[in-house]
Specification:
heterodimer; A: alpha/beta; Rossmann fold; 4-stranded antiparallel β-sheet; 8 helices; 10 strands; B: mainly alpha; 11 helices; globular
Chain lengths: 244, 264
């Protein structure tokens, strides 16, 4: 049986005495697209930091493809590509240099990095910008570079934390299409954090986080029916009390 | 992960440090100008005021310029260590530190690669300075140029590790000015970089003991002896042990259990 891409079991995390995540559990199967929704301060970014081992849970366990994150971080993190909410590109390096640095951090040889870089830059229509400094790129292109970089080492799980924040509608739609294609064609599991409701479709598997608790889980369609809500935005307001 | 993967990772980190160093020309120039100012201006003034007795490793009377050069090599690696610490804090504020910390390779290994890369970059600056220092009649024996390499590398590792420890403690770039006032300057002035320890003892015994306990003094002495083809075992062991202790503290500082990045 295929191991779940993410298996979070009873995870809690505190900032001082303030709980950020409160005994949450969920699984994400390989090749699935799951949207993680929640208002600001719900604990989405904390969850991402825990999934990437930037933080360690106060209790509970996290497994990525069956590898416990705290016991086998190397094996677990090898499977993961991450795009953080805040840009993590080195602005003074070129696109190619940023990707090469990431490849090296994953132990890839120069030759493999070159081959993979060609594939990913072509996929995101960035080949002509390979030798440009990141500083010279616009927001949309920078985001695409970050996703290309996250895919460089061929991860089986992609974590995207508000990856479309600050982008115009066209760039958002284009990125959204790219990510969904990856999911279908390359069987990559995707955990997509967003607060932009229009990025979701009614079939999307959705996880709603509020004040450190998972308050709903299911396909958007199921959740709408279950809670008798006219749309996802209304559902979010209904469940979390969020204003917009 | 295979040994080749570890090597690729180290080479990648080294390449990035070199690229950043090459791009920051002002950093290279200031790293040369700083010790040259000491050598040209400060040493000229002190030459008349300070007499240097014959002390090991020197076999004859020397000028103050000759005495001060190992200390100035020390200041190059000290500032480079602090620069590297500053860039770690900057990377953390900008978010790019996350790229390093989410690598599947062991975090301790990543930090050591980062440290070693920074130390190797400072060697370029040291040799450039030694080349310029020849114009001021500071001409150590040829073998000294070879022996000074491992000694400087060890000193740079120790000071780079200190920088890593500081970067794990400093939460914001704004707090970095305090490092200059409370770490860099005391470390430099309370050492044998500018004056021999015996001279310090004549002036004030308490300050002498502080200078003798300062690991930077021993890094400078290790460089001084190696520059004249000699080995100072005491300086080597103190520098080496301090390096290991500081690296261990830095690794602990970046342990996710300490939740260093919790505010990011």
């Amino acid at each position: 049986m295929t191991k779940a891409a993410i298996n979070v079991s009873g995870v809690s995390y505190y900032y001082g005495s303030k709980p950020a995540l409160n005994n949450i559990s969920f699984t994400l199967q390989a090749g699935r697209f799951v949207a993680l929704l929640g208002p600001n301060g719900a604990g989405k970014t904390t969850l991402f930091s825990l999934l990437t081992r930037l933080l360690q849970p106060a209790s509970g366990s996290i497994e990525l493809f069956g590898f416990p994150l705290h016991k086998s971080p190397g094996q677990a993190l090898k499977q993961v590509g991450v795009v953080f909410q805040q840009s993590t590109l080195d602005l003074d390096l070129t696109v190619a240099q940023n990707l090469a640095y990431h490849g090296a951090l994953h132990g890839l040889s120069g030759r493999t990095v070159k081959q993979r870089m060609t594939v990913e830059l072509e996929r995101f229509e960035l080949s002509h910008r390979a030798n440009d400094k990141v500083r010279e790129l616009n927001g949309g292109h920078r985001r695409r570079v970050e996703i290309a970089r996250a895919l460089l080492h061929q991860p089986r799980l992609l974590l995207l934390d508000e990856a479309t924040v600050g982008l115009d509608l066209e760039s958002r739609q284009s990125l959204n299409r790219h990510i969904r294609t990856l999911c279908v064609e390359e069987n990559i599991a995707v955990l997509w954090t967003t607060h932009l409701i229009e990025e979701l479709s009614s079939e999307d598997d959705t996880l709603i986080l509020n004040q450190g608790n998972i308050i709903a889980r299911g396909s958007s369609e199921e959740l709408l029916t279950e809670h008798d809500a006219p749309g996802i935005a209304a559902l979010l307001i209904q469940l979390t009390g969020a204003k917009s | 992960m295979s040994p080749a993967a570890y090597l690729n990772c180290f080479l990648g980190i080294l390449r990035r440090e070199l690229l950043r160093f090459i791009q920051q020309r002002s950093r290279f120039i200031s790293s040369l100008v700083r010790p040259l100012l000491w050598l040209v201006v400060f040493a000229a003034g002190f030459r008349a005021a300070l007499g240097i007795a014959i002390i090991p490793p020197y076999e004859t009377y020397i000028t103050y310029e000759v005495y001060i050069v190992p200390g100035l090599i020390g200041i190059i690696v000290l500032f480079n260590g602090m620069q590297s610490s500053l860039s770690m804090v900057y990377d953390r504020e900008m978010g790019s530190m996350k790229v390093l910390l989410t690598s599947p390779l062991p975090r301790a290994y990543l930090l050591i690669c980062k440290l070693l890369s920074g130390a190797l970059v400072s060697l370029f600056q040291v040799y450039a300075f030694l080349l310029v220092a020849r114009a001021f009649e500071v001409e150590p024996p040829a073998i000294g140029y070879l022996w000074v390499l491992p000694a400087t590398l060890l000193g740079a590792l120790m000071l780079g590790a200190l920088g890593l420890v500081l970067s794990s403690l400093i939460k914001q770039l704004e707090n970095f000015a305090g490092v200059m006032n409370f770490v860099v300057f005391p470390m430099f002035f309370l050492s044998s970089a500018l004056y021999p320890l015996w001279k310090m003892r004549e002036a004030n015994e308490i300050i002498y003991y502080i200078c003798a306990a300062n690991p930077f003094t021993h890094a400078v002495e290790l460089i001084r002896f190696s520059l004249y083809g000699q080995f100072n075992a005491q300086a080597f062991w103190i520098t080496a042990v301090t390096t290991v202790v500081l690296i261990s503290i830095a690794i602990l500082g970046y342990d996710p259990r300490r939740s260093l990045l919790r505010k990011r």
